[in-house]
TrEMBL record:
Pfam family, one: PIG-L
Family matches, as InterPro entries: GlcNAc_PI_deacetylase-related, LmbE-like_dom_sf
Designated name of the protein: PIG-L family deacetylase
Length: 253
């Protein structure tokens, strides 16, 4: 399947997020229905910033409900600008964790109590280490956890591998898994039938939550800047930011 490239997307292009009629039919769900009272929430992010793109609004709502939160960042995102002298991996390995801290602060996350695990895996190479990923994730889960990970068919190799590894780890431990499409929303509209709409639930966000999510995304300065010298477009393309303005997030349950 040829997926849409967000870096090439335009606001008027027919992508799933801005043209699929099924979006209007998705039933709503409340955070308290997704996560039982007192349950721990675990967010699994392949790369820094994926947690903001996927569920920055839901994170705010769950934090306000005082759920214990754990974030597992599997890579440091240092391979986001291959071949760049402006953003070499050595610089990104320092900058991107700092950006993540600032993004979570902008979301209003309780950094003093947030349990944050950094996996140290190499990004753009997770598919070859899927079994290790599953074992690593399972190590930090416990029965009764409610886990949010990328959808295993998101169309990005790292996202798909993490989705499968998360599903395996949850099955092993006895945790509940919800999946989050990220890149899939930017597939061409003709691919909309591939989305498992029967599993989709809509978490509604107010204007303040959306604004904070966008503010958090802009903490990733390295991802908002490409490298014109080598023809590298920004990783956080404008079309991704436009989608984040939608007053809801979608969870596959």
């Amino acid at each position: 399947m040829k997926l849409a490239s967000p870096s090439d997307g335009r606001s008027g292009s027919a992508q799933i997020w801005n043209s699929a009629p099924q979006l209007a039919q998705i039933p709503p769900i409340t955070p308290s229905s997704l996560v039982p009272p007192g349950a721990r929430v675990v967010i699994i992010a392949p790369h820094p910033g994926d947690e903001v793109l996927a569920c920055g609004g839901l994170l705010q709502l769950l934090s306000n409900l005082e759920h214990p939160l754990k974030l597992i960042s599997l890579t440091d995102g240092s391979a986001s600008h291959p071949g760049s002298n402006v953003w070499p991996a050595s610089r990104l390995s320092v900058v991107r964790p700092q950006e993540s801290v600032e993004a979570l602060r902008r979301l209003g996350m309780p950094l003093h109590s947030l349990k944050w695990i950094r996996g140290g895996f190499c990004d753009n190479a997770l598919a070859a280490r899927e079994a290790q990923l599953s074992q690593f994730i399972a190590r930090y889960l416990q029965p009764g956890d409610v886990v949010f990970s990328p959808w295993r068919n998101d169309g990005n190799d790292d996202h798909d591998s993490v989705g499968r590894a998360s599903a395996s780890a949850c099955s092993l431990v006895g945790a509940q898994l919800h999946e989050l499409p990220i890149r899939a929303w930017h597939w061409p509209a003709r691919e909309a039938a591939i989305i498992p709409w029967h599993r989709a639930r809509k978490v509604r966000l107010d204007a303040w939550s959306v604004a904070r999510k966008l503010h958090a995304a802009h903490a990733y300065a390295s991802q908002l800047a490409g490298d014109p010298q080598i023809g590298l477009a920004p990783m956080l393309a404008q079309v991704l930011l436009e989608r984040m303005r939608e007053p809801y997030e979608i969870v596959l349950s």
